[in-house]
């Protein structure tokens, strides 16, 4: 039998089968679905003023926002300094006012029609002619009837999204609001609590019935806030419960081997290093060491900005395992990077009598077979390779530790492949922080976290500049001068040509004109996307040994490549890159004690001059939003050197779902909470969820039965999460 709220909404007054069908198209089938279709905005009626009042306010120097309601009289587009300005004139009972937009004229022209009523919210300004004006205000449209009626209704007016599916059956703001009102009045009382009572009490949350009521028709803003808080908490609580459950799963396994740190070997190794480890590196190492010595498998995320020195930490961790007679694996995202790790590590540990082997795709068959034998018979102690290492059937002799470098390029899938293979071994995942601090725990909440939050002492912050293409001659001059002091330069051109032929030609054209004209006195080399990794590697190697001054690259220079004397990077068409990519690219320089420079070159002079970092995109057209975001990205690079700061901006620009690309990020798609803004609620929800699972691993206790039921009901939720696991 159905309970009331599970009945179809077609039985609500003024819905019926036809409208029910259109609701169904946007995912609303039952009364309960409708109860959770919350408004997107609210308008506080008690703060609405009329024109005369607002003018008085403005004259008195009042700085705050006001809300005013008016009817559109007319609108027009002005031209001003090659820009289009959009103006709408309104009237209310006491006078006239106007709204102005400096962007998106075309778009707004289709929004405001004569005779329609809008609520306008913004800071009032008085023009030099004494007109009341609002610049880029927030606005809400009213149905005509409503504009006359609502002066007699509720205090806070909810605004719902009315998608075109609903409009097609003649549903508008007002009719939708009425239908929802009916549902709330008659059915909200039947909602059952979706959090355990003891958590609702302990956390001082609003109960579900009052929450739903207040989300739609709040008495006042504090009660709306309580309702929103409850929705956010619940959402984050369930997400974190899944993370906690996953973490439990890992923790119950036991390793079949015991490892003790042999400090002699480590001491000997540290002595041979040309530098001392930073405090952060030491701290992180002791955390890793505890995990390696424990009988539970390590699942640790090592986070550290580009250049913070993660490789050496990984290497020492591997040495601990190797000294106990186990093998250690280091996986890199690309062959060229694997190869560089292999060379570095061999150079550092072979004198300790440790055998390092490389396994990558491009090797000769005989070479490959030899390496595979060494891995199987155990003579290979440290094995460096790409992810091919786990995808193929490599038989390890005694595997003790797997290190994954640059996790963000691997994605979550590879990590799960490892676990699926039943490799009950220690795993250390390294990442250069494409994820903001605040999010790490929710994304990788089943991992323990170590952070290298300190750069090696000798580093100077990289100086970053943003220049228009017209400044290229000066930039070339700068490269030439600095080459005189032994500086090397990366010159990056992002090519996105579809066909190999075209791309190759473009790369060669750039290269030729640089070599014969702008930089003809310097030694130049070229790397492009169509080269084999061996060829790239050879050039990288020659560049690193200073046979060239300038490396021209038409592909992204591999993440993680380390060339100490390359201290200038020029990124052409910088707008083509995402923020985390730009930061990774910049990380190719500044890896020594010399001053490093990053020059971002943009086509658009405009973007270069602007330093507006306003993240408000309301009412910009899609085109302008893209331009605006580009400008913010480039200017953020100039302003910030920390990858953490940049990743936070990136997150705001992209939205969590899109962080560095795809779903791979494993970030939840949240409806109510904002992972950045609600960081406090997130951490509270996390603590609560982890405490619940700690105490009641199987969710078997009666008081937690609601949690179990909710998890089962939201089945799609758990499927998505288990895929990440
Ligand atoms: P990332 O964290 O980006 O992987 P790397 O491990 O490649 O950084 O280190 C960058 C450079 O810094 C390397 O040349 C490395 O040898 C050097 N390095 C690492 N640790 C220190 C330290 N404590 N002091 C000085 N240089 C260091
Ligand atoms: Mg690295």
Please outline what is shown here.
With 725 residues, this protein is of the alpha/beta class.
User: What's the pLDDT, averaged over the residues?
Assistant: 83
What is the CA-atom radius of gyration, in angstroms? 31 Å
CATH architecture of the domain at 463-640: 3-Layer(aba) Sandwich
Relevant CATH superfamily of the domain at 463-640: P-loop containing nucleotide triphosphate hydrolases
Number of strands: 23
By CATH reckoning, the class of the domain at 463-640 would read Alpha Beta
Q: Tally the helices.
A: 28
Q: Indicate the structural class.
A: alpha/beta
Q: Give the amount of beta strand, in percent.
A: 15-25%
Write up what this structure looks like.
The protein is α/β, with parallel strands linked by helices. Among the domains are: 45-155, Nucleic acid-binding proteins (OB fold (Dihydrolipoamide Acetyltransferase, E2P)), CATH 2.40.50; 263-294 and 309-431, Rossmann fold (3-Layer(aba) Sandwich), CATH 3.40.50; 463-640, P-loop containing nucleotide triphosphate hydrolases (Rossmann fold). The protein contains 28 helices and 23 strands. Strands 2, 3, 4, 5, 6, 7, 8 and 9 form an 8-stranded mixed beta sheet that branches. The chain has a 7-stranded parallel beta sheet with strand order 13-14-12-15-16-11-17, sandwiched between helices. A 6-stranded parallel beta sheet has the order 18-23-22-19-21-20, sandwiched between helices. Helix 21 (533-544) links the parallel strand 20 (524-527) and strand 21 (550-553). The longest helix is centred in the first third of the chain and has 31 residues, at 221-251. It binds adenosine-5'-diphosphate and magnesium ion. Adenosine-5'-diphosphate (ADP) binds at residues 275, 277-278, 281, 304, 306-312, 432, 456, 458, 560, 562, 591.
